[in-house]
From TrEMBL:
Record-given protein name: Beta-lactamase-like protein
Record-linked InterPro entries: RibonucZ/Hydroxyglut_hydro (IPR036866)
Length: 76
């Protein structure tokens, strides 16, 4: 899968994503406010040295680096 998108954490949208991530290779995972899910996402990163807070901070930094605004990402 090249891109997978989770628009919000409601179970009708996000509940199947864990099965997808565990069963199929996903190149890019797009998540609304991804730093809110750092604890859940951490096991899926190749680098197992991330802390929950460190990953959350890195996700925020990446959002700023891309030049996208948080408001834009929340319009889903």
């Amino acid at each position: 899968i090249t891109h997978a998108l989770v628009t919000h954490p409601d179970t009708d949208h996000a509940s199947g994503m864990r099965e997808i991530l565990e069963g199929l290779p996903v190149e890019n995972l797009w998540v609304n406010l991804p730093w809110n899910f750092a604890a859940e996402a951490r096991p899926y990163f190749v680098d197992k040295n991330w802390t929950e807070q460190g990953l959350a901070n890195e996700l925020r930094k990446e959002l700023k680096w891309t030049g996208l605004s948080r408001q834009f990402l929340c319009l889903f």
